[in-house]
Amino acid sequence: MQSQEKYWNISEETGKFLAFIIEITKKKSILEIGTSNGYSATWLAKNAEKIITIEQRDDWYQEAINNLKDSKNVKVLHGNALEIIPTLKETFDLVFIDAKKNEYLQYFNAIKPLLNKDALVIADNTISHKDKMKDFLEEIKKYNTIELEIGKGLTITTFLL
Questions:
Q1: Sequence-ordered list of residues with C-beta below 8 angstroms from that of 133, at least 6 positions apart, any chain
Q2: What is the DSSP string of 77-97?
Q3: pLDDT in tens, 21-59
Q4: What is the pLDDT of residues 85-97, one digit of tens each?
Q5: Which domain holds residue 61?
Q6: Contact at 8 Å (CB) between 38 and 1?
Q7: CATH number of the domain where residue 48 is located
Q8: What is the number of structural domains in the chain?
Q9: What is the pTM of this model?
């Protein structure tokens, strides 16, 4: 796959952490918001049963389709996540958000009805892009949340529904 800079991919460190979290928590159904070229989905797919990932950009979507064609547990959707999420019939054990930073709160609100008991929401770039997601970071303080200095910042929020 192409470079982190061209596709805004997560770091290898972040990918390994995500795969580890899914493995130890036994999360099976994953939603990813922001596919890019599919690099993060390859890490998510290592230990999950089913992944739905959403990418809006045409060129990145096509690249992701090509890169993930052998990943039978990954379904790549094309379009605006805020329009697609309300149409989803599935529920999720884990949601990974790595898309338009100023829309994180909107994604968060849209996915809440789709979360299973004890779901995790992991948001990327919460240190590097903190200024673009102040509303999201303020909202998640209401929940059990931790921010980690992994990659460009990961925030993990748990839901004990």
A1: 101, 102, 104, 105, 123, 125, 126
A2: EES-HHHHGGG----EEEEEE
A3: 999 999 999 999 999 999 999 999 999 999 999 999 999
A4: 999 999 999 999 9
A5: 4-158
A6: yes
A7: 3.40.50.150
A8: 1
A9: 0.94
